[in-house]
Amino acid sequence: MNKADIVDVLEDIAVLLELKGENPFKIRAYSTGARALETMEDDLGELIELGKLSGMRGIGSALVEKIETLYATGELAYYTELHASVAPGLIAMLEIPGLGGKKVKKLHDALGVESIDALKAACESGEVEALKGFGKKSAEKILTGIANRAAYAKRYHWWMAREVAEPILAGLRALPQVERAEVAGSLRRLRETVGDLDFIVASADSQLVMDWFVTQPMVAEVTAHGVTKSSVRFEGGLQADLRVVPAEQFAFALHHFTGSKDHNVAMRQRALARGYSLSEWGLTEKVGGEGAKPVGHGIISEKGLFEFLGLAEILPELREGLGELEAAEAGELPTLVTRSDIRGVFHNHTTASDGRGTIEEMAAAAEALGWDYLGLADHSKASYQANGLDEARVLKQVAQIRAFNESGASPVHVFSGIECDILPDGSLDLEDRTLDALDYAVMSVHSSFSQSEDEMTARVIRAIEHPATTMLGHPTGRILLRREPYKIDLQKVIDAAIANQVIIEINANPRRLDMDWRLWRRAAERGLMCSINPDAHSTDGLSYFDAGVNIARKGWLEKEQVLNSRDCAGVVRWFSERK
Ligand code: DGT
Ligand code: CA
Ligand code: CA
Ligand code: ZN
Q1: Is residue 562 within a helix (H) or strand (E), and if so which, with residue range?
Q2: Is pLDDT above 90 for 148?
């Protein structure tokens, strides 16, 4: 676990202890420790290795071992047990602005409230404002906080949202009364995160579809139950809207609720310019109002709608209001890379570093996916928390992979790679002659995230300019919904990558999706090559390449711009020409 995540855990512990009414000195030890760790300049891994953590100002003796455990394993039994010992409703209350551990404890002790709903009732009945230390203002503030919770609502990784959506969609399609059903919105546009799900159904019996939807076992709360629209919240918090429309409106509703807003605005303007008014209900003559004459009767698909407006069909993932109408009009939409174009993947870990699959297991999983080749890129020694490989272990693995290929045990060709750390000064973690023994190398930043933008940019460009560099790994280090990207001038990085014929990856881990889709179209036009890399740490992790294909498509990438679409010989050629 990295430093920022450990800081979060320590802060969490402090709040939970507060909530339990623990000794203030104990609580302060954790909050002080969190702050000390957060502002610490030194590399945490180095401090731990040198045994210097216990000497750091602000880090008490009780914390040293916990930080070391978190750093090494990402888990801490003390924290897990503490978390489990507090009612979930009280933990939810902590998310309301202005409510910390102390206040939640007070509300719980004095009023017995153990859920947001109970707290809301206590505010409305005047119980909260009567409480010492609260008053009318804070009761009102709590109520607004509760009401705004939807607005601050969490987003979810696309991968997780899809897992929730799929069984619902399958269930809707299986209802005999349902003619057509789709998920619209950001999920269909393949955005990296999703706010809520939007189901669109064509059916003549809307009440029955609604009744089915709101009674699904994974529904935790029904927030609306109408004839044309219902909304629910699933266990885990994700919300979903369902709209049922008559079959003849389906294409228009699907297009409208797929969005994006910017795309819809551009489409409506285009319709207006041609004398039509476009909405989720359909197309009418521009006059508007009740008497407006409907047009475009035979349109039963989105393709039909686009054609009616003189456009080639624009796939949902391109509907972001970023010039897709212009490209569709000019017949210049890209032929997007597809999942079946992928012949293999390059950035994957094995049991040699922090992966859970052996060379043999990973190759078998690649074979099951129908791939021709698999690149293995374990961590290098500077990532010692991930059991990174030193020079000798790299060379040993190269020999193992050669023997595996020569044994003929698998139709999958395994390429020997490495995910080599880019050290803080931009030098590489392994010696040139070690890197030379490999087929390819992915270079990644895993430390000193808090460098200035200039330092980080220079650091990464120095690595790109090294002749052994084949690819740049997760170029911003972001963890979606959790950790911001480190500061880096990606345009300069892209320029350097193009100049040095270095590939930039789309790290397909659904929590990363780094480099961002917004940058790909222009970068690829200028000659940047992409590789879709699942960063798999187990055989299951290989399936993440799907999420990477999504992002490549959102970035307008075609097959030729993605290394993974080449056959084995094509990949060998790419590697050897750049050595
Ligand atoms: P999300 O849920 O935040 O991840 O993003 P979306 O795109 O799924 O947004 P959502 O669920 O609010 O609405 C679904 C689509 O409906 C949206 O992409 C476009 C359309 N839509 C919603 N509200 C408006 C609006 O006020 N104007 C226009 N033109 N379209 C809208
Ligand atoms: Ca949505
Ligand atoms: Ca919605
Ligand atoms: Zn990495």
Answers
A1: none
A2: no
265 close to ligand 1 (CB < 6 Angstrom): yes
Does residue 192 line the site of ligand 1, with CB under 6 A? no
Q: Which of 60-74, 257-271, 280-294, 448-462 bottoms out in mean pLDDT, i.e. has the lowest? A: 280-294
**CATH tag, 259-329:** 3.30.210.10
| CA distance readout (Å), 529 to 141, 438, 532, 560, 565 | 51, 20, 10, 9, 11
Q: What is the pTM of this model?
A: 0.77
Architecture (CATH level 2) of domain 3-152: Orthogonal Bundle (1.10)
- The Cα angle at residue 432 between residues 427 and 437, in degrees rounded to 5: 135
- Ligand 1 binding pocket includes 132 (Cβ within 6 Å): no
Looking at all shown ligands, the one closest to residue 388's CA atom is 4
Nearest to 549 by CA among 397, 387, 340: 340
Q: Which residues of 363-395 are buried (b: 16+ CB within 10 A; e: fewer)?
A: bbbbeebebbbbbbbbbbbbbbbbbbbebebbb
Which atom from ligand 1 is nearest to the alpha carbon of 194? 4
What's the start-to-end Cα distance of the chain, in Å? 35
CATH topology assigned to domain 156-245: Beta Polymerase; domain 2 (3.30.460)
List 348's β-bridge partners, or say none.
536
- Pinpoint the alpha helices (H) of 281-412: 302-308, 324-329, 359-368, 391-407
> Is any atom of ligand 1 closer than 6 Å to the C-beta of 195?
yes
Q: Ligand 1 test: best mutation among 155, 157, 186, most atoms within 8 Å of CB?
A: 186
